[in-house]
Amino acid sequence: MARSKSSKRWLDEHVNDPFVKQAQLDGYRSRASYKLLEINDKDRLIHPNALVLDLGSAPGGWSQVSAKLVGHNGRVVASDILPMDAIAGVEFIQGDFTEQMVFDQIMATLNGNLADVVISDMSPNISGVAVADQAASMYLLELALDMASQVLKPKGSFVAKVFHGEGYDDYIKAVRGLFEKVVIRKPDSSRSRSREVYLVAKGFKG
């Protein structure tokens, strides 16, 4: 079957993407790893010995980065609806974290400990209908923020992928109500034509 022009353009862009090539060299599972690395370089969120919760973790690019940053004495707990191959130093729970059974599993794995950082690179399955896709994205973001508010320790941090569009301003306002400092980042490894940006919130008010 002949590829559409858009899928061919995406494939050409992907094959020639320097971050895709670098991820292969560095052993990362996705180019998204560099987004978290760049954010962490600027904002110093994940430190040795930290406890990190990675929501929507598959295929594992952010979990890989987090595991390296927290070191042997830190912990990374990851969850996704999709399966994810094992990563050294990462405790993975498959399932929808909004379902009680999966939520309970995550809480049991945390074992009464509160997270230093909650990270989320989640995106909805894209339908191509802009309004529906934006609504689905904002819904995931609300779920991630709700989860963060339940598991973060005071002064903890939250990082999430956000798309400009309907609901964006209200969401930023809601996050500002829960954290002392909120900034928006557009990492170099994020494609310029993408509407995605990364919200970085520090100083959870608890």
Automatic annotation (TrEMBL):
Pfam family, one: FtsJ
Enzyme class (EC, first level): transferase
Protein name per Swiss-Prot or TrEMBL: Ribosomal RNA large subunit methyltransferase E
Catalytic activity annotation: uridine(2552) in 23S rRNA + S-adenosyl-L-methionine = 2'-O-methyluridine(2552) in 23S rRNA + S-adenosyl-L-homocysteine + H(+)
Main function: Specifically methylates the uridine in position 2552 of 23S rRNA at the 2'-O position of the ribose in the fully assembled 50S ribosomal subunit.
Active site: 161 (proton acceptor)
Enzyme Commission number, as recorded: 2.1.1.166
Species the sequence originates in: Allohahella marinimesophila
